[in-house]
Amino acid sequence: MKHKLWFVLVPLVALTGCETLQTPQQRQNAAVRQQAAARHSEERFYRLQGQIESIEMENARLMQELQKLQNEVRSYNGQISQLNASMKSLESKQARETQEVINRVEGLLKKTAAARPSAPARGAGREHVVESGHTLSAIASAYGTSVSAIKKANNLKSDSIYVGQKLFIPQ
């Protein structure tokens, strides 16, 4: 039984790499392998360190670019705000001017209506000759009637009228 145990232990000790069982050549080869592994690890460390530095530099460059883009966005936002304010001002001005034109046209229509004698036709009402700038709503307002009443009295299917057109304005 002791011999069987001996046959198992001797190869086991030899396979474990016990230094006492290694020859000087084996120890030297092991040392060379360790030095090569150490050099490889050191080279890899320096390569990784270089990659890290490169990444950090790229990150810094990207951060500067991001800051520049953020500044541009702030500038554009300011310009957009100014343009929005200008647009609101222009829209307000346009609305005032449009209302002034409507008021002038209504005034002219009232003067025109008052200056022309009424010609009764098709019941009670007057005749109106369309001039440039007149609209059905302005004419209706000037005569104190509605657009639908004018359209009905003149058999109009739409709000379109033309210069020189004669319209009967019902009372």
Give a written overview of the molecule:
With 171 residues, the chain is mainly α. Helices cover 71% and strands 6% of the residues. It is built from four helices and two strands. A two-stranded antiparallel ribbon has the order 1-2. The model has no long low-confidence stretch (mean pLDDT 86). Helix 2 packs across helix 3 (136-143).
Question: What is this structure, in a nutshell?
Answer:
The protein has helices at 2-15, 24-115, 136-143, 147-153; strands at residues 125-129, 166-170. The protein is mainly alpha-helical.
Low-confidence stretches: none
Average of per-residue pLDDT values = 86
How would the global form be characterised? Answer: rod-shaped
Strand order of the largest sheet: 1-2
By helix and strand content, what is the structural category? mainly alpha
Our measurement of the CA-to-CA distance between the termini, rounded to an integer number of angstroms, reads 137 Å
Strand and helix order: HHEHHE
Number of helices: 4
Could you give the count of β-strands? 2
Radius of gyration: 50 Å
Largest sheet: 2 strands, antiparallel
Strand coverage percent:
5-15%
Helical coverage, percent range = over 70%
